[in-house]
Design a protein that fits this description.
This protein is α+β, with helices and mostly antiparallel strands and 125 residues long. Helices cover 68% and strands 14% of the residues. The chain is elongated.
Length: 125
């Protein structure tokens, strides 16, 4: 019986610690990386995290968006050094290819950690 009470106390302590972490993350909500938080940019970074590289056309098709949207949002991510852009030619056809940088991968991981903490905080209320 004593072992059950001890286990229950440990579970409550862990739950309390998780709740505290979640509340602290919720308090930091304004600190979300707004560069990644925007839908198209989050899509670009997430797609590149799951692939070694993607072309402009692949991103456009994957995100179901326009040339202009991919171009503008990719440029913002490039400026922040979250992604790199390599331009080349296949014969006479231009090819633009994007890759996620180490900085971009770290930013995505921090963003995901923050969102997970916010979700936990919302569920524990």
């Amino acid at each position: 019986m004593a072992k059950t009470a001890q286990t229950t106390t440990q579970q409550k302590t862990r739950a309390s610690a998780r709740a505290l972490q979640a509340r602290q993350a919720a308090e930091r909500a304004p600190e979300l990386d707004n560069l990644i938080h925007e839908r198209i940019r989050l899509g670009i970074v997430s797609a590149l995290a799951a692939n070694e590289s993607l072309t402009f056309s692949e991103l456009k098709e994957l995100l179901k968006t326009t040339d202009g949207n991919v171009s503008v949002h990719a440029r913002k991510l490039e400026d922040a050094e979250y992604i790199t852009c390599t331009k080349s030619f296949n014969g006479r056809v231009p090819k633009t290819e994007y890759q996620l940088t180490t900085t971009g991968r770290q930013a995505l991981e921090q963003y995901l950690d923050h969102m997970e903490a916010l979700i936990r905080a919302a569920r524990e209320r």
